[in-house]
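Input sequence (194 aa), recorded before submission:
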Amino acid sequence: MYPIHSSRPERRAAVEQKTRYSLYKLELREDFVSKCGYCDTPDYYSGGRRGFHIDHFAPKSKFDALKNEYSNLVYCCPICNIGKSDDWPTERSDVSYVDGVGYVDPCHPDYHNHLARGRDGVILPLTPLGAYIHKKLKFSLRRRQICWLMERMEQQLIELAKIADKSEGESQEVKALCELTIRYFEYAGILKRE
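Predicted structure, token format:
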């Protein structure tokens, strides 16, 4: 099994107070490594920064005082944001789950105790709370697995290209692999453009 996040998101501690939560999007994108805080899908699969949402971990509809609180914001994909919506298990903003119902802040180290990825990229619930999150945020959608597998494949292609670059007396097969890798990244680059 693998952790759900390839690199755990971490919100910066000090951020200048802004008048609207939408103005934090650049900082959030950086802190969440351009990936959904909940499912770890890169933002370029949803149109980049413009296509990604800002979730209020404790919903703004229930906790208006936290509307512009940076520590309450999560950079996320549209599917996770719509799935979570205004769902919250308690009347308190600081109690995010009760008896296996609710959510764990994806920046909290405990998030990884509830969800993981299988070797095939499928997101797996590890606890009853993880199962609740898995269902609400639609983690069973195949696109989550495909995006993860494509990202892993790209990392492996980069490593193969490095190995091929160091090899002496390149064969036709190695040259063909390198050319194919270059073409792949040209096509993938179209998807990743803002």
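Checked by second reader. The CA atoms of residues 36 and 76 lie 4 Å apart.
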